[in-house]
Write a structure and sequence with these properties.
The complex is a heterodimer of chains A (about 270) and B (about 375).
Chain A: H1 23-37, E1 44-48, E2 63-66, H2 72-82, E3 87-93, H3 94-100, H4 102-111, E4 115-121, H5 156-163, E5 167-172, H6 176-188, E6 193-198, H7 214-224, E7 225-227, H8 228-231, H9 236-239, E8 243-250, H10 256-268
Parallel strand pairs in A: 1-2, 1-3, 3-4, 4-6, 5-6, 7-8
Antiparallel strand pairs in A: 5-8
Helix pairs in contact in A: 1-6, 3-4, 4-5
Chain B: E1 3-8, H1 9-20, E2 24-27, H2 34-43, E3 50-53, H3 57-69, E4 74-78, H4 80-85, H5 87-96, E5 101-108, E6 114-118, H6 123-128, E7 137-139, H7 144-161, E8 165-170, H8 171-175, E9 177-182, E10 206-207, E11 210-211, E12 223-225, H9 239-254, H10 257-260, E13 263-267, E14 273-276, H11 281-294, E15 299-304, E16 306-308, H12 312-321, E17 324-329, H13 334-339, E18 348-352, H14 361-371
Parallel strand pairs in B: 2-3, 2-4, 4-5, 5-8, 7-8, 14-15, 14-17, 17-18
Antiparallel strand pairs in B: 1-9, 5-6, 7-16, 10-11, 13-15
The chains are: A alpha/beta (about 270), B alpha/beta (about 375).
Bound molecules: thiamine diphosphate, iron/sulfur cluster and magnesium ion.
Iron/sulfur cluster binds near residues 18, 23, 126 and 202 of chain A.
Chain lengths: ~270, ~375
């Protein structure tokens, strides 16, 4: 049995998340992946924005920082520039990272700064009551889409890839083992890593879309998940509405702070 | 005597900051502040510090809050439009009590306004720009040498009170060149190292109303949030705690005005007409005062260097004895309005100008003579 109490602030439990929320599954996966890294807890820095998902930082027994809506990544960037030796993990939501914080997300990926971003994608603004997010699927309902949602969605994996992230993966809360493995791979990458985890918000998304229970929602996620390998054999029409999972990129490129130190600092004649 | 350097205001700001211990700058270019970023890009990697040009001003201030919490003295620099974008995170810094410095080289606003024109239009934004009730420290020097020394004081105050400090400059000050004597004997307050029992460490335990917060990654794991929190750093939004926290944050600044407050008084002691002015505009007021004194008119200048908290007590005292208080500003009368809170309204004369030019000594003299 994995001993979660080694990494969780047990005195902060029970958490504020709704019963059956996918956030707990993701948090457990992240903690297990961090455990595999064998890091000293003092060297781990967890940073989050604002949202249900971003409350994760309150429960982990690391250095932890709960920032502003959308701004976890630039706070984390400053921490990394200040203390490159810290292992910086960002917990963020679909709204936090791709709406209000979208600009920061793409620029951090472009720089390839060594952050591991675990993005809880529940396709909705959970915390504020179920308004649509940049990943709410078309045709579904949200509190601000009472007649059905018309906006096209972001493909977060494509967004990260186009921006230059060096590790990009997607999994779901319906497949915790895979998710944990991807987060672990992301943590190992020296550079910007994005792990999107498709999650359930039955309370604020499900209820408006005929999926009241966590079970129904997780089934809905499971039924649409298709591995990248399988997806390659499928026609575009068949992939409509599917969640393609897998590791989409895993490559090496100079990490930002290392490049700064080895190039800029050297040229400037500074350094330690 | 120290070395004499001929510096631009923005350059003096960057050099002073590095002298004060600045080792991380995150910023976004904007006229008339960009030289500060450029100088930091040049200087910081020479001393083992780091510079980053972020994607916008929101990211810039966010990055320096992170940098500071991780133990590095941090700063950003901007002007009006960027300062507006930074307001939310400035409030975060006040709430989470993070030491850092935000430089705002004021230009004409609102909006894109007049990028290359001077202004003092952000005096009130510096005070109340971020939402909610909060205390603020804002400094505003008048010259290039004063910029060098005041930016060092800004860092010292930030460290001592665990409070972001707004450093106001204006386009004239940022772009002008003057000689600065770089003294050796400058007090620098280093970042505190906090020791404690990791199992019981409370990052917001107070000593004289100032939190004893450690740096991340030094063995005391703790939590920081922008929500109201208790001394453990975790959210507590009970009414009692909110009231207590805001009162304490105000007390932290107000009860240390002897250290934070700073102003200059020149001209006649207890004058009939008191000229009040800040920043470069105050230099014009001082010239006017000299001329008035030469003509035998009882005139003096009161120049706040610490603009917030406003040196209200001293100014109220001087104003009681004065017949008129002439408040001279390159804005619509932001400080004049503040002064109406504690100076008899009949005494106040506001001299304001918004044509991108400093109010000249001649105009000040004629206004002063006209009201006496
Ligand atoms: C500047 C700002 N705008 C809006 C909000 C309100 N707000 C809080 S959380 C949130 C959305 C969160 O959605 P997401 O990031 O997807 O997180 P989730 O709650 O779904 O996990 C919004 C709009 C805020 N806190 N700050
Ligand atoms: S509102 Fe949704 S995302 Fe938030 S805790 Fe409840 S189920 Fe989870
Ligand atoms: Mg969400």
């Amino acid at each position: 049995m994995f001993d979660y109490s080694k990494y969780l602030r047990m005195d902060k439990l029970p958490h504020i998340w709704c019963y059956g929320c996918g956030n707990g599954i993701i948090l457990k996966g992240a903690v297990r992946a961090i455990d595999k890294m064998g890091w000293d807890k003092d060297s781990v820095m967890a940073v989050s924005g604002i949202g249900c998902s971003s409350r994760a930082t309150g429960y982990v027994d690391f250095n932890s920082l709960h920032t502003l809506h959308g701004r976890a990544i630039p706070y984390a960037t400053g921490i990394k520039m200040s203390r490159p030796d810290l292992n910086v993990i960002v917990f963020t939501g679909d709204g936090d990272a791709t709406a209000i914080g979208g600009n920061h997300f793409i620029h951090a990926a472009r720089r390839n700064i060594d952050l591991t971003v675990v993005l809880f994608n529940n396709n909705i603004y959970g915390m504020t009551g179920g308004q649509y997010s940049p990943t709410t699927p078309q045709g579904y309902f949200a509190s601000t889409a009472p007649y059905g949602h018309i906006d096209p969605s972001f493909d977060i994996v494509q967004l990260a890839m186009g921006s230059g992230a060096t590790f990009v993966a997607r999994s779901t809360v319906a497949n915790p083992r895979e998710m944990e493995k991807f987060i672990h791979e992301g943590l190992k990458n020296k550079g910007f890593s994005l792990i999107e985890v498709v999650s359930n918000c039955h309370e604020r998304f499900g209820k408006r879309n005929k999926m009241k229970s966590p079970y129904e929602m997780i089934e809905w996620i499971r039924s649409r998940a298709v591995s990248k390998v399988k997806a390659e054999t499928m026609e575009p029409e068949e992939l409509e509405g599917k969640i393609i999972t897998g590791i989409f990129r895993q490559e090496t490129r100079p990490e930002y702070v290392e490049a700064y130190d080895s190039f800029v600092m050297q040229k400037a004649g500074g350094g330690n | 005597m120290g070395e004499i350097k001929f510096l631009q205001g923005n350059e003096a700001c960057a050099l002073g900051a590095v002298r004060a211990g600045l080792r991380f700058f995150g910023g976004y270019p904007i006229t008339p502040s960009s030289e500060i970023a450029e100088q930091c890009a040049r200087l910081l990697p020479r001393v083992g510090g780091r510079f980053i040009q972020m994607e916008d001003e929101i990211a810039s201030i966010a990055s320096i809050i992170g940098g500071s919490l991780a133990g590095t003295k941090s700063m950003t620099a901007t002007s009006g439009p960027g300062f507006s974008l930074m307001q939310e995170a400035l409030g975060y810094g006040i709430m989470a009590e993070v030491p850092f410095v935000v430089v705002n080289v004021m230009r004409g606003g609102p909006s894109t306004g007049h990028p290359t024109g001077p202004s003092q239009g952000d005096i009130m934004q510096a005070r109340w720009g971020t939402h909610g009730d909060h205390p603020v420290i804002a400094l505003y020097p008048e010259s290039v040498p004063e910029t060098y020394y005041e930016i060092i004081r800004a860092f010292n105050l930030a460290e001592r009170f665990r409070q972001p400090v707004v450093f106001l400059m204006d386009e004239i000050l940022g772009k002008m060149n003057e000689s600065v004597e770089i003294r050796d004997d400058i007090e620098i307050i280093p970042r505190r190292k906090i020791e404690g029992d990791p199992s019981r460490y409370a990052p917001y335990a107070m000593k004289e109303d100032i939190p004893q917060t450690a740096n991340y990654g030094e063995g005391l794991r703790f939590h920081v949030t922008g929500l109201f929190h208790d001394e453990t750093g975790f959210p507590d939004v009970s009414g009692d705690n909110i009231q207590r926290s805001i009162d304490r944050m105000f007390r932290k600044i107000e009860e240390h005005e002897d250290v934070i407050g700073k102003w200059e008084e020149t001209g006649t002691v207890d004058p009939d007409i008191l000229l009040v002015s800040v920043g470069t505009q105050a230099r014009s007021a001082k010239m006017a005062c000299k001329e008035l004194n030469r003509e035998g008119i009882s005139a003096g200048v009161f120049r706040p260097v610490t603009v917030w908290p406003f040196p209200e007590k001293r100014l109220a005292e001087l104003s009681r004895k004065a017949k008129k208080v002439l408040i001279i500003e390159m804005n619509k009368g932001q400080l004049a309005d503040e002064c109406r809170k504690f100076i008899d309204g009949d005494k106040i004369i506001a001299l304001n100008q918004l044509n991108s030019e400093m109010i000249s000594p001649r105009e000040i003299i004629s206004t002063a003579k006209g009201v006496l």
